[in-house]
Every structure is written in C-alpha cells, then in structure tokens.
Amino acid sequence: MNNELIHNQYHEMLRDVITEIKSARVTLAQRINSGMMQMYWNIGKRLSAEKIEKGYGSNVVKRLAADLQQEFPGTTGFSPRNLWDMKKFYEYYFLADAKLRQLVAVLPWKHNLLIMSNANSLDEAKYYVEMSHENSLSRNMLLNFIKADSYKNAKILPKHSNFALTLPENLQQQADEMLKSTYNLEILGLKLPLKERELERRLVEKIKFFLLELGTGFTFIGNQHRLTHNDKDYFVDLLFFNRKLHSLVAIDLKVGEFEPEFVGKMNYYLGLLDDKVKQNDENPSIGIILCATKGKVDIELALRDFNKPIGVAEYMLQFPEKEIKELISREVEEFTAEKSNKKNKTK
Questions:
Q1: CATH for 157-316, among 3.30.70, 3.90.1720, 3.30.230, 3.40.1350?
Q2: Rounded CA separation 153/156 (Å)
Q3: CA dihedral sign of residues 58, 62, 68, 71
Q4: Angle 164-269-178 (CA atoms, 0-180°, nearest 5)?
Q5: What is the chain's mean pLDDT, rounded?
C-alpha cells in the first residue's frame, strides 16, 4: 500500500468513527432528556394531586425545593419556579392525546416552557411541538416562529390545490401537509414593489431560512433550473426535492395576484420535469405557485382540468402592524433585562 492510500483509508475511518460518536451522543442526549421529562411529569403529577396552588402553597413548594437541593446538591432543576413549571407541565398536557404527550416527552424542557407560555390552546401547542421536531428547531428559531404567529398565519387561509384529483391516495395527505396556505418571507427584509427575480435572488441567498419556512424534508436543487424541449429552454424559478414525498417540488414565484394562466405554465413545467428529470422510483412532480395574493379568482376552478398536482399559496413580507408593535415591545423588555443582568454581574 502506498502512503496516499493509507492516508485516505485512515481519514475515511476517522470520519466514520466521528460520525458514530456524534450519533451516539445524540442518542444518549435524547434518552437523558426523555428521562428528565418523565421525572418532571411525575413530580408535576404529584404536586397537582396535592392540589397545591400559588399563594397558600408557596411555602410548601419553597420547602420542597430547599429539601431537594439539600438531598441532591449541585442539581439546578429543583428551584421553586421549576417545581411550579413541572406542575403546569403536567396540568397543561395530561388531557392531551397520547401522540402529543410522546412528542413533548422528548422535547427539551426550555422548548416546552416556551410553548406553554405562548400557546393559547392544545392545538396551537401541538403545532409548535410538531414544528420543533420536524425541523429540529433551536429554541431561538422556535421563538421567532412563535413571534411571527406562524400558527395563526397557517390557519388564516384555506389551502388550494388539486392534489385529491391528481395524486395517488397514499400521497394526497402528505402533499397537503407539505403545502401551506401562506408563507412568511419577512426574513428577506423586502419592501414592495419588487421584481420576481429579486424575490428569487433573496430567497436563494437565505435558502436555509426558506427551507425552514417550507417545512420538513426539503432539499434545494437550484434556481432557474433549465428544462429544454424541442430546442426551446424553460426555467423553473426554484426546484426542490422532498424526501418524505419522494417527489420533485417546483416553485413558481409571482409578485402580483394569482392568474389562471399561471396554472397552465406550471402544468407544462411539471410535465417536463416528469419526462426529463424525475427518476423511475420517484413519485410525480408537484408544483407550488407562490403569489403575493390569491386575489378573487376561483382557484379550484382554475386547477380543476389539469392533470398535474399543483398548489397555490400566498406569501407575506411583513408582520401585521399589531404583531410588530408587540414584537418591538418584547424585544425592548428583553434587551433591558439582559443589559441589567450584565451590569449586575460586573459589580
């Protein structure tokens, strides 16, 4: 064996060992977190059963926290506040279905606290819990989705697609879950008016954030993806592959209102993708027409006679005024608190 071959084999072995260690660490961290969540759940259940409430129960919880910290010195999870949060955790989710309880059991504690503090219903909590899992969101990313009121925006408008007519039954639900009624593109910092190519350029620059907004399972293939047929070139604005659907997903960007002719163009592009790009083991290509507004056109009628799966959605460039004011107010409070804490630490 020559030195170069030995060198390459060693580095291949090193990469494999590093991957194995990282994988084991993730698995171990998940098991530790799951065990801790089960402990918090059981403690919260006991506190709830004792019907301890803030006010008259404050002294009981303070004494319990002090005794636990004495019994387990160096452990930081048994403060009075955390014990109250454990009780809230149990009471918040004990009526939830088994699937949601399983999901929150493997979600980091700080994620759970953030969701419980902001969700106004179990349905809203479930939305953010599932989003955190599917997209592996950090706490800061989750916080930004909550501040953007993603749950509310996802529920405002009905979804428009012809998936039920054009996709096999086993793919219809998955495709519908993949499609949103509206997409929040506020992260791009754009102001109207803008051009479609400018919108595309900004999305490509921040493709990581756009992938998070699209949802789980998306892999970016390229922008202005060239399709050639009969010596003529056609270009798909944004092309992705969705691993869950096992399908190509083409996105056509429109800065104005939805027009029925957009569907014909997308239908043609999907035909070319199926003929020239899609592999034999992949499912039919899917199209999303992303417009500034759906307007007043009957979208279901516009989609009805086309045989390719197409969805129509809107995008937002800014939060509503009320949400912006609330966001600024919270940011000022958080900044002031952080500044005060830093000043106290330096004293």
A1: 3.40.1350
A2: 5
A3: negative
A4: 40
A5: 79
